[in-house]
Amino acid sequence: DKKKRMMTYRWIVFAVLALAYFFVYFHRVSGGAANEEIIAAFDGTVSASQLGLLASAYLYAYTIMQIPSGILTDTLGPKKASTIFVFLIAIGSFLGAYAAMPGVLNFTLLVVAKFIIGVGAAVVYIPIMKVLAMWFRKSEFATMSGVLLLIGNVGALAASTPMVMMFQSLGVDMTYVVLAVITIVIAVLCWLFIADHPTNKGFPA
Predict the structure, then answer these.
(1) CA 146, CA 169: separation in Å to the nearest integer?
(2) What is the mean pLDDT of residues 73-94?
(3) Rounded to whole angstroms, how far apart are CA atoms 110 and 99?
(4) Residues above pLDDT 90, as percent of the chain
(5) pLDDT tops 70 at residue 97
(6) Which of 99, 80, 86, 92 is nearest to 18 (CA)?
(7) Confidence category of residue 31, pLDDT binned at 50, 70, 90
(8) What string of DSSP letters covers the chain?
(9) Which residues have C-beta within 8 Å of that of residue 75, sequence separation ≥ 6?
């Protein structure tokens, strides 16, 4: 009976982390997808080089955090690591919303926000890999990795036209607010449902 419940519960754990990974890709692509909207929000004062810096800020942070993300996952465990750093994505999103507010319009602050989002997003993939290793059979690992990459790429697709539509209808600042709220919900789900190992939930290994 415990084994059957574990085989069901692991899909909840995977679904929560896959949702987080969806938004990792969403944030990765979102900057470049809505360049015109960002230029309009900042009254045309943003240059092409600045837009390039905005897009690369996420990638710089993501690259820098690759080795630390593994260390943090081993030290904190997938549950704490994913919760803390998904919440960090939300903080970056709120900061981005503030930077793009009509009365503020601070592009440097928007770049800092994007960097913070990149730091948070970097510590999502490794916890998922550890969860897959702990909750799924060896014969399922490659399949589940492929499913995860599919979900990530769907997130990248969602950051193209749908993201532009959000920017156009809500504005840059409110779009970041919506993303921040969604990300906070995901962080809460990580804390409530993720377990580092099946035995933490009373299930067999």
Answers:
(1) 34
(2) 95
(3) 5
(4) 61
(5) yes
(6) 86
(7) low
(8) -HHHHHHHHHHHHHHHHHHHHHHHHHHHHHHHHTHHHHHHHTTT---HHHHHHHHHHHHHHHHHTHHHHHHHHHHH-HHHHHHHHHHHHHHHHHHHHHHTSTTT--HHHHHHHHHHHHHHHHTTHHHHHHHHHHHS-HHHHHHHHHHHHHHHHHHHHHTTHHHHHHHHHH-HHHHHHHHHHHHHHHHHHHHHH--SSGGGGT---
(9) none
Say which range, 58-67, 165-174, 190-199, has the weakest mean pLDDT: 165-174
What's the pTM value of the predicted model, to 2 decimals? 0.89
Tokens at residue 58, please?
Answer: 């996420």
Give how far the C-alpha of residue 164 lies from the chain's centroid of Cα atoms, to the nearest Å.
Answer: 18
Tokens 């921040």, residue? 180
d(CA 174, CA 101): 8
User: Which letter, b or e, does each residue of 114-152 get, where b requires 16 or more Cβ atoms within 10 Å of its Cβ?
Assistant: bbbbbbbbbbbbbbbbbbbebbbeeeeeeebeeebeebb
**How confident is the prediction for the chain on average, in pLDDT?**
89
Radius of gyration of the chain (CA): 18
Tally of CB atoms within 10 A around 174: 15
DSSP letters of 9-37?
Answer: HHHHHHHHHHHHHHHHHHHHHHHHHTHHH
